[in-house]
Amino acid sequence: MEMNTANAGRTLRGTEAVSSSLRPREKDTVLELFESVGTWYLPGTKDEGKLDAREYLHGRMAVVFFFQSWCKGCHAFAEQALCPLAAEFKDDPRVRFIAVQTVFEGFKENTPDKAQEFQLEHKLDFPVGHDNPLDVSRLPEERRTMLMAQIPHKDELPSSMMVKVGMRGTPWTLILSPNQRKGGKMEVLFSGFRFDWKKVRNMFQRRLAAMAKEQQQQQQQQQSSRPRGEATEASSAPKAIGEQKQQQNTGGKP
User: Fold this and answer.
1) Cβ atoms 35, 204 nearer than 8 A
2) pTM, to two decimals
3) How far is CA 203 from the centre of its chain?
4) Looking at residues 128-136, what average pLDDT do you find?
């Protein structure tokens, strides 16, 4: 659901003004956004778990799904797009999925335990987290004042990731891919409300095929370089032996 005008719509205008100041700088990575997630639920467990999202996602194609548990559109889109896409790559370790509850309204209803209920209801076989509220103390004073002026209830701050990503509501999705030309640094391919999961599947397949081809070429280059080096060493050995024999026959004179 999008932020409504009566309540969180005012928060939206405030968050747009500060989001650019919070997004990762060039020296950082997109994966640092996950540092604000305070609760993780891992598949197959009932209790809260721990997850290093940076390690979990690094170097892989990734889909990050943001939701609120009371959002009917989130439930519908999870069934219509997220689950079918996840099923396509369930056994492929090169693709990872994560869902995070990013709350901007209904704070008493959209609690961490509801995030786990969302995971169980849709049988999500990947980590699901609950993001912490934005830490406004880290904002420059001008932007902090601007944001707080837009929030109806000062004790109900929107999700940290929601502001940093620049989300305008839920459901929201980030699609990430490692950029090999930048040392595998993660880049954002898509950031928006809805996506066509079949088109994303096709895109993933093309990119994965290209990545596999590139890795294969690198391996072939490494393998082809080894025999040449070994052949050079091997060919030099008989030559050295022949020179030694020639020196012995000529009394040590070359």
Assistant:
1) no
2) 0.75
3) 16
4) 92
